[in-house]
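Note to self: keep these together.
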Amino acid sequence: MVLDFYKLAEQPFGVTPDSRFLYLGPKHREALASLVYGTESNRGFLALIAKPGMGKTSLLYHYLSFLRDKARTAFIFRTDCDSREFIRHLLIDLGVDVPGMDLPAMHDTLNKLLTEELRAGRRFVLVIDEAQNLDEKVLESVRLLSNFETPWVKLMQIVLAGQPQLADRLASPALAQLRQRVSMVIRIEPFSSQDVNAYIDHRLWVAGCQNPALFTVGARKLIAEQSEGIPRNINNLCFNAMSLACALKRKAIDRDIVQDVIADLDLEPLREKNIVAQKPVNKLERSVARFSLAPKIQSIGGSWIPKLALTSIVALAVVLFFLNLGRGASRTAASAPTVASDAPAPTPVPASAPAPVVVSEVSLLPADAPNSKSEPRSQDVQVKPGQTLYQISIDNLGKYNGKVLSQFQDLNPWLSDPDRIHPGQEIRVPAAATLSTDGQRAAEQASNAAPAEAGKQ
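Structure:
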C-alpha cells in the first residue's frame, strides 16, 4: 500500500544489507579505500570497527564484490563457535566437503587450497563479520592462520570487522600477538546532517521515487538529530514516517509526523510499565507485617509530611479568623455612639440599698453584620471594564479621600492595592449615611475635646 501511494518500485528503507542502496558518503568511501589499499599492499590483518547500524556489513559486501575478479574470498558471519567449528565454517564457505575431518586434516586441506590460489596468481581474502563475539581461543586460532605464508608473501589476507567491543578485545594483554599483526584499524564515523539528506535522497532515488521533496526540511533535520547519523536509525524513522503518512493520506512527510514516530519508537515508557507489572499489588501482602527497617522508615517519612502541612494550614486559618474577629470588634467599639454631655445624671443609689445588677446585651450577630433596625452600612458594587476605585467612590459617594479609602479597606480586607481591581469583581461600598454619621461623630468628639484641652491650660 505504501509503495502504491508514493509510486515506488520497492521499499527504500529496508532492513537487508542490499549493496544497491549503499550510500558511499565521505566516511564510507574513506573506509572502503582503506580496505582496498590494505589488501593490495598485502598487509595481513585489517580491522574495520563501527557502531551498530553504521552499514558495516553492506560495506563489506561491496568490498567483496570489488575483489570478485581479483581474489578468492570467504565470508564468515557465524562467530558463536569454537576453533574447530570456525575452520569448518570457513571450508564450507569455500565449497570443501568436511564431514569426518578432524582439526589437523582441515588445516591441511586449507593449506593446499591456499597454495593452489597462489599458483593461480590470485589472492585469498577472509572477511570475519561480528568478530567481537569470537572467543579468545578462536581469535588465537585466527592469528595462527596468518602462518600460512611463503618467505615472500602472505597466503591469506584477513579482515576483522566488528563493533567497538572488538577494539577492547584487541587491546587486551592476552591478544597482544594478534594486535601486533593488525596493520590497519579502519573506522566508520556517523553521518553529518548533509550526509543524512544525501542518504535519504539516494535511497529514494534507487527505489524509484519521483518526488524529491517527500520529506520536508524540518522532517529531515529532526531525523538527523534523533538518528545520531546512524543509517539503521535513519531507515527505521523514515520507514515508520512513510507508513504513518500513508495511513493519514499525507503526500508530504513533515516534522509533526516524524515527531509522532519518535514518540512511538520510545521504549522507556514500555520499560517502566513492565517493571510495574512484575510487582502487582496483593491485598494479602498489605496485612503481613514487614520486618525490614527501611520500608518502615520510608512509610513514616511519607505520612507525617502531609499531616504536618494540613495542621499548619488549619492553624493559620484559625489565627486569621481571630484576627478578623478582633478587627470587627474594634470597629464596632469605635462606631458606638458617644454619650451626650447633657444626658441626665444617673439617680444616686442609697448606701443601704443593694447594688444593682447590670445585664449587658449580647449580640449573636458578627460585628460587621447589618442590623435590621438600622440603615445598611454598605452595598455591593460590581466593577465594570475600565472602572477604577476612584470612579466607583465618586459615582456612589460623591467624594474620594483618605477616610473613604479606609472605609473601603475595612469593608474589603483583600483590597491591599486600591489600584489593582479587575472587571467582574464585587466591591463593598460604604453607604453615604455611614460616612456622614462618622463625620458627625468626629465633629462631636472634637468639640468635646476642645473644652477639656482648654481646662488643662
